[in-house]
Amino acid sequence: MSALHPELTGASDPEAALPTGQQWVIGHGPFEATVVEVGGGLRTLTRDGVDLVAGYAAQERCASGRGQQLMPWPNRIRDGRYTFAGTEQQLPLTEVPLRNASHGLVRWALWELVEMEDSWLTVGYRLHPQPGWEHFLDLRTTYALDDSGLTVTTAARNVGPAPAPFGYGAHPYLATGDTPLDDIEVRIPAREWVEVDDRLLPVGRHPVPGSDYDFLERHRVGAHDLDTAYTDVARDADGMWRCTVASADRTVTLWADESFGWLQVFTAIARDQKGVPGVAVEPMSCPADAFNSTESLVVLEPGDEWTGTWGITPD
Predict the structure, then answer these.
(1) Burial of 109 per CB tally in 10 Å (0-12, 13-18, 19+)
(2) pTM of the predicted structure, to 2 decimals
(3) 46, pLDDT greater than 70
(4) Residue 115: which H helix or E strand, with range?
(5) 23-178+261-314: which CATH number, 3.10.450.10, 2.40.128.50, 2.70.98.10, 3.90.850.10?
Protein backbone atom coordinates (compact mmCIF):
# COMPACT_ATOMS: atom_id res chain seq x y z
CA MET A 1 0.00 0.00 0.00
CA SER A 2 1.27 3.46 -0.83
CA ALA A 3 1.96 5.73 2.10
CA LEU A 4 -0.16 8.83 2.43
CA HIS A 5 1.72 12.07 1.95
CA PRO A 6 2.00 13.38 5.54
CA GLU A 7 3.03 16.83 4.35
CA LEU A 8 -0.35 17.08 2.62
CA THR A 9 -2.76 15.32 4.93
CA GLY A 10 -2.38 17.59 7.91
CA ALA A 11 -3.33 14.58 10.06
CA SER A 12 -0.61 15.14 12.66
CA ASP A 13 -1.18 18.88 13.06
CA PRO A 14 -4.79 20.07 13.52
CA GLU A 15 -3.75 23.62 12.66
CA ALA A 16 -2.55 22.37 9.26
CA ALA A 17 -5.90 20.80 8.35
CA LEU A 18 -6.66 21.15 4.66
CA PRO A 19 -10.00 22.28 3.19
CA THR A 20 -10.44 18.99 1.30
CA GLY A 21 -9.11 16.77 4.08
CA GLN A 22 -6.68 13.93 3.45
CA GLN A 23 -4.87 13.84 0.11
CA TRP A 24 -4.31 10.38 -1.41
CA VAL A 25 -1.68 10.27 -4.18
CA ILE A 26 -1.27 7.50 -6.76
CA GLY A 27 1.19 7.21 -9.63
CA HIS A 28 2.06 5.13 -12.67
CA GLY A 29 4.96 5.94 -14.99
CA PRO A 30 4.61 9.63 -15.97
CA PHE A 31 1.13 9.95 -14.45
CA GLU A 32 0.20 11.14 -10.94
CA ALA A 33 -3.23 11.82 -9.46
CA THR A 34 -4.51 13.19 -6.17
CA VAL A 35 -7.87 12.15 -4.71
CA VAL A 36 -9.28 14.02 -1.72
CA GLU A 37 -11.26 13.00 1.34
CA VAL A 38 -13.90 15.71 0.95
CA GLY A 39 -16.24 14.46 -1.76
CA GLY A 40 -13.88 11.68 -2.82
CA GLY A 41 -13.04 13.87 -5.81
CA LEU A 42 -10.11 14.22 -8.20
CA ARG A 43 -7.95 17.21 -7.25
CA THR A 44 -5.03 16.74 -9.67
CA LEU A 45 -3.98 14.65 -12.64
CA THR A 46 -0.62 15.24 -14.33
CA ARG A 47 1.66 13.65 -16.90
CA ASP A 48 5.35 14.47 -16.46
CA GLY A 49 4.26 17.31 -14.20
CA VAL A 50 1.95 18.90 -16.79
CA ASP A 51 -1.68 19.34 -15.74
CA LEU A 52 -4.23 17.18 -17.55
CA VAL A 53 -7.07 18.41 -15.37
CA ALA A 54 -7.55 21.96 -14.12
CA GLY A 55 -7.52 21.26 -10.42
CA TYR A 56 -6.65 23.34 -7.37
CA ALA A 57 -4.03 23.59 -4.64
CA ALA A 58 -4.08 21.47 -1.49
CA GLN A 59 -4.55 24.63 0.59
CA GLU A 60 -7.64 25.70 -1.39
CA ARG A 61 -11.29 24.75 -1.07
CA CYS A 62 -12.70 23.09 -4.15
CA ALA A 63 -14.43 25.73 -6.31
CA SER A 64 -16.57 25.49 -9.46
CA GLY A 65 -17.11 21.77 -8.84
CA ARG A 66 -13.56 20.91 -9.89
CA GLY A 67 -13.22 17.12 -9.91
CA GLN A 68 -16.26 16.52 -7.72
CA GLN A 69 -18.59 13.51 -7.78
CA LEU A 70 -22.28 14.28 -8.31
CA MET A 71 -24.60 11.70 -6.73
CA PRO A 72 -27.39 10.70 -6.39
CA TRP A 73 -28.15 13.21 -9.14
CA PRO A 74 -26.05 15.41 -11.41
CA ASN A 75 -26.83 19.00 -12.32
CA ARG A 76 -30.06 20.48 -10.90
CA ILE A 77 -33.49 19.65 -9.48
CA ARG A 78 -36.06 22.42 -9.94
CA ASP A 79 -37.02 23.98 -6.59
CA GLY A 80 -35.43 20.93 -4.93
CA ARG A 81 -38.80 19.17 -5.26
CA TYR A 82 -39.66 15.81 -6.72
CA THR A 83 -42.08 12.95 -6.15
CA PHE A 84 -40.89 9.36 -5.91
CA ALA A 85 -42.97 6.29 -5.06
CA GLY A 86 -45.94 8.56 -4.39
CA THR A 87 -44.16 10.72 -1.82
CA GLU A 88 -43.28 14.36 -2.45
CA GLN A 89 -39.80 15.32 -1.31
CA GLN A 90 -38.18 18.69 -0.60
CA LEU A 91 -34.38 18.88 -0.80
CA PRO A 92 -32.34 21.79 0.57
CA LEU A 93 -31.72 24.47 -2.06
CA THR A 94 -27.97 24.53 -2.61
CA GLU A 95 -28.03 26.84 -5.65
CA VAL A 96 -29.93 29.59 -3.87
CA PRO A 97 -29.93 32.32 -6.58
CA LEU A 98 -31.61 29.93 -9.04
CA ARG A 99 -33.69 28.08 -6.40
CA ASN A 100 -32.32 24.67 -7.33
CA ALA A 101 -30.92 21.64 -5.51
CA SER A 102 -27.57 21.25 -7.25
CA HIS A 103 -25.14 18.41 -7.88
CA GLY A 104 -26.30 15.80 -5.37
CA LEU A 105 -25.58 15.09 -1.74
CA VAL A 106 -22.02 13.75 -1.52
CA ARG A 107 -19.61 16.33 -2.92
CA TRP A 108 -18.90 17.84 0.52
CA ALA A 109 -19.18 14.58 2.46
CA LEU A 110 -16.17 12.88 4.04
CA TRP A 111 -15.30 9.79 2.02
CA GLU A 112 -13.15 6.99 3.41
CA LEU A 113 -10.14 5.31 1.87
CA VAL A 114 -11.24 1.71 1.28
CA GLU A 115 -8.12 0.31 -0.39
CA MET A 116 -4.98 1.71 -1.97
CA GLU A 117 -2.01 0.49 -3.98
CA ASP A 118 0.69 2.41 -5.85
CA SER A 119 -1.33 3.04 -9.01
CA TRP A 120 -4.95 2.84 -7.83
CA LEU A 121 -7.25 3.46 -4.91
CA THR A 122 -10.87 3.04 -3.94
CA VAL A 123 -12.86 5.51 -1.84
CA GLY A 124 -16.30 4.89 -0.37
CA TYR A 125 -19.25 6.58 1.28
CA ARG A 126 -22.58 5.39 2.72
CA LEU A 127 -25.34 7.83 1.82
CA HIS A 128 -28.00 7.80 4.56
CA PRO A 129 -31.55 9.20 4.64
CA GLN A 130 -31.79 12.95 5.18
CA PRO A 131 -34.22 15.77 4.34
CA GLY A 132 -35.57 15.14 0.84
CA TRP A 133 -33.83 11.76 0.50
CA GLU A 134 -35.13 8.57 2.14
CA HIS A 135 -32.67 5.96 0.87
CA PHE A 136 -29.46 4.08 1.69
CA LEU A 137 -26.74 3.81 -0.97
CA ASP A 138 -23.25 2.34 -0.72
CA LEU A 139 -21.02 4.34 -3.06
CA ARG A 140 -17.58 3.21 -4.21
CA THR A 141 -15.24 4.91 -6.69
CA THR A 142 -11.96 3.50 -7.95
CA TYR A 143 -9.32 5.73 -9.55
CA ALA A 144 -6.70 3.76 -11.51
CA LEU A 145 -3.67 4.88 -13.52
CA ASP A 146 -2.13 2.85 -16.32
CA ASP A 147 -0.09 3.51 -19.47
CA SER A 148 -3.01 5.31 -21.13
CA GLY A 149 -3.97 7.62 -18.28
CA LEU A 150 -6.78 7.58 -15.71
CA THR A 151 -9.78 5.26 -15.43
CA VAL A 152 -12.59 6.04 -12.95
CA THR A 153 -15.20 3.41 -12.05
CA THR A 154 -18.10 4.15 -9.72
CA ALA A 155 -20.58 1.69 -8.21
CA ALA A 156 -23.78 2.56 -6.35
CA ARG A 157 -25.60 -0.22 -4.51
CA ASN A 158 -29.02 0.13 -2.90
CA VAL A 159 -28.58 -1.31 0.60
CA GLY A 160 -31.95 -0.04 1.83
CA PRO A 161 -35.39 -1.66 2.01
CA ALA A 162 -37.07 0.28 -0.84
CA PRO A 163 -36.36 1.36 -4.45
CA ALA A 164 -34.17 4.45 -4.85
CA PRO A 165 -33.81 6.95 -7.71
CA PHE A 166 -30.25 7.45 -8.91
CA GLY A 167 -28.15 9.48 -11.30
CA TYR A 168 -24.40 10.06 -11.52
CA GLY A 169 -22.17 12.78 -12.82
CA ALA A 170 -18.53 13.80 -12.51
CA HIS A 171 -17.13 17.32 -12.90
CA PRO A 172 -13.53 17.26 -14.18
CA TYR A 173 -12.06 20.19 -16.08
CA LEU A 174 -9.63 19.30 -18.88
CA ALA A 175 -6.66 21.63 -18.55
CA THR A 176 -6.01 24.17 -21.30
CA GLY A 177 -2.95 26.06 -20.05
CA ASP A 178 -2.52 29.62 -21.25
CA THR A 179 -4.45 29.16 -24.50
CA PRO A 180 -7.33 31.67 -24.83
CA LEU A 181 -10.74 30.03 -25.13
CA ASP A 182 -11.18 31.42 -28.67
CA ASP A 183 -8.23 29.27 -29.81
CA ILE A 184 -9.12 26.08 -27.94
CA GLU A 185 -10.43 23.31 -30.16
CA VAL A 186 -13.20 21.00 -28.97
CA ARG A 187 -14.83 17.87 -30.30
CA ILE A 188 -18.18 16.95 -28.69
CA PRO A 189 -19.51 13.58 -29.92
CA ALA A 190 -23.24 14.24 -29.62
CA ARG A 191 -26.10 14.87 -32.04
CA GLU A 192 -28.50 16.77 -29.75
CA TRP A 193 -28.07 19.73 -27.42
CA VAL A 194 -30.32 20.71 -24.52
CA GLU A 195 -31.93 24.15 -24.34
CA VAL A 196 -32.34 25.54 -20.80
CA ASP A 197 -34.30 28.33 -19.17
CA ASP A 198 -32.95 31.19 -17.05
CA ARG A 199 -32.59 28.76 -14.14
CA LEU A 200 -30.43 26.41 -16.24
CA LEU A 201 -33.14 23.74 -16.31
CA PRO A 202 -34.08 21.83 -19.49
CA VAL A 203 -36.89 23.08 -21.70
CA GLY A 204 -36.12 21.26 -24.97
CA ARG A 205 -33.71 19.32 -27.16
CA HIS A 206 -32.48 20.32 -30.61
CA PRO A 207 -30.38 18.77 -33.39
CA VAL A 208 -26.70 19.64 -33.23
CA PRO A 209 -25.76 19.55 -36.93
CA GLY A 210 -25.53 23.03 -38.40
CA SER A 211 -26.20 24.81 -35.09
CA ASP A 212 -23.91 26.95 -32.95
CA TYR A 213 -23.52 23.89 -30.73
CA ASP A 214 -22.13 21.67 -33.49
CA PHE A 215 -18.75 20.29 -32.47
CA LEU A 216 -19.15 16.86 -34.04
CA GLU A 217 -15.96 17.69 -35.92
CA ARG A 218 -13.20 19.24 -33.85
CA HIS A 219 -12.89 23.00 -34.33
CA ARG A 220 -12.13 26.22 -32.47
CA VAL A 221 -14.51 27.38 -29.77
CA GLY A 222 -14.19 30.93 -31.07
CA ALA A 223 -16.81 33.29 -29.66
CA HIS A 224 -19.02 30.51 -28.29
CA ASP A 225 -19.61 30.15 -24.57
CA LEU A 226 -20.91 26.74 -23.58
CA ASP A 227 -22.72 25.66 -20.47
CA THR A 228 -24.54 23.04 -22.44
CA ALA A 229 -25.77 19.48 -22.02
CA TYR A 230 -25.60 17.08 -24.95
CA THR A 231 -27.15 13.69 -25.69
CA ASP A 232 -27.66 11.21 -28.53
CA VAL A 233 -23.94 10.57 -28.17
CA ALA A 234 -21.87 9.16 -31.03
CA ARG A 235 -19.99 6.12 -29.79
CA ASP A 236 -16.87 4.55 -31.25
CA ALA A 237 -16.61 0.87 -32.16
CA ASP A 238 -15.67 -0.01 -28.58
CA GLY A 239 -18.90 1.52 -27.24
CA MET A 240 -17.22 4.58 -25.76
CA TRP A 241 -17.84 8.21 -26.63
CA ARG A 242 -14.84 10.55 -26.60
CA CYS A 243 -14.79 14.31 -26.07
CA THR A 244 -11.53 16.09 -26.88
CA VAL A 245 -10.21 19.46 -25.70
CA ALA A 246 -7.08 20.69 -27.50
CA SER A 247 -5.04 23.75 -26.53
CA ALA A 248 -1.68 25.01 -27.78
CA ASP A 249 0.45 22.66 -25.70
CA ARG A 250 -1.78 19.68 -24.84
CA THR A 251 -4.67 17.60 -26.10
CA VAL A 252 -6.80 15.72 -23.58
CA THR A 253 -9.69 13.34 -24.21
CA LEU A 254 -12.41 12.28 -21.79
CA TRP A 255 -14.15 9.01 -22.64
CA ALA A 256 -17.15 7.25 -21.09
CA ASP A 257 -18.89 3.90 -21.39
CA GLU A 258 -22.48 2.86 -22.10
CA SER A 259 -23.67 4.02 -18.67
CA PHE A 260 -23.32 7.63 -19.82
CA GLY A 261 -25.77 8.89 -22.42
CA TRP A 262 -25.26 12.54 -21.54
CA LEU A 263 -22.45 15.04 -21.07
CA GLN A 264 -22.17 18.70 -20.12
CA VAL A 265 -19.52 21.05 -21.52
CA PHE A 266 -18.75 24.26 -19.60
CA THR A 267 -16.27 26.85 -20.88
CA ALA A 268 -16.52 29.86 -18.54
CA ILE A 269 -13.45 28.93 -16.49
CA ALA A 270 -11.28 28.89 -19.62
CA ARG A 271 -12.89 32.11 -20.89
CA ASP A 272 -12.29 33.95 -17.62
CA GLN A 273 -8.93 32.30 -16.85
CA LYS A 274 -10.36 31.73 -13.39
CA GLY A 275 -7.91 29.74 -11.28
CA VAL A 276 -6.29 26.93 -13.28
CA PRO A 277 -7.99 27.30 -16.68
CA GLY A 278 -9.80 24.40 -18.27
CA VAL A 279 -12.96 23.24 -20.01
CA ALA A 280 -15.31 21.10 -17.95
CA VAL A 281 -16.40 17.88 -19.64
CA GLU A 282 -18.92 16.20 -17.36
CA PRO A 283 -20.05 12.61 -18.05
CA MET A 284 -23.63 12.17 -16.81
CA SER A 285 -25.98 9.19 -16.63
CA CYS A 286 -29.04 11.46 -16.87
CA PRO A 287 -29.87 15.11 -17.57
CA ALA A 288 -30.75 17.91 -15.16
CA ASP A 289 -34.03 17.53 -13.27
CA ALA A 290 -34.23 13.80 -14.02
CA PHE A 291 -35.88 13.16 -10.63
CA ASN A 292 -38.88 14.97 -12.13
CA SER A 293 -38.70 14.13 -15.83
CA THR A 294 -37.48 10.54 -15.11
CA GLU A 295 -35.48 10.75 -18.36
CA SER A 296 -32.60 8.24 -18.17
CA LEU A 297 -33.24 7.98 -14.42
CA VAL A 298 -32.04 4.73 -12.83
CA VAL A 299 -34.28 3.15 -10.22
CA LEU A 300 -32.28 0.84 -7.99
CA GLU A 301 -34.28 -1.94 -6.38
CA PRO A 302 -33.02 -3.21 -3.01
CA GLY A 303 -29.74 -5.01 -3.65
CA ASP A 304 -29.33 -3.60 -7.17
CA GLU A 305 -26.06 -1.96 -8.23
CA TRP A 306 -25.30 0.60 -10.93
CA THR A 307 -21.77 0.91 -12.34
CA GLY A 308 -20.23 3.33 -14.77
CA THR A 309 -16.70 3.94 -16.07
CA TRP A 310 -15.06 6.99 -17.62
CA GLY A 311 -11.50 8.12 -18.04
CA ILE A 312 -9.01 10.73 -19.20
CA THR A 313 -6.32 10.10 -21.82
CA PRO A 314 -3.78 12.60 -23.18
CA ASP A 315 -2.91 12.47 -26.88
Answers:
(1) middle
(2) 0.94
(3) yes
(4) strand 112-116
(5) 2.70.98.10
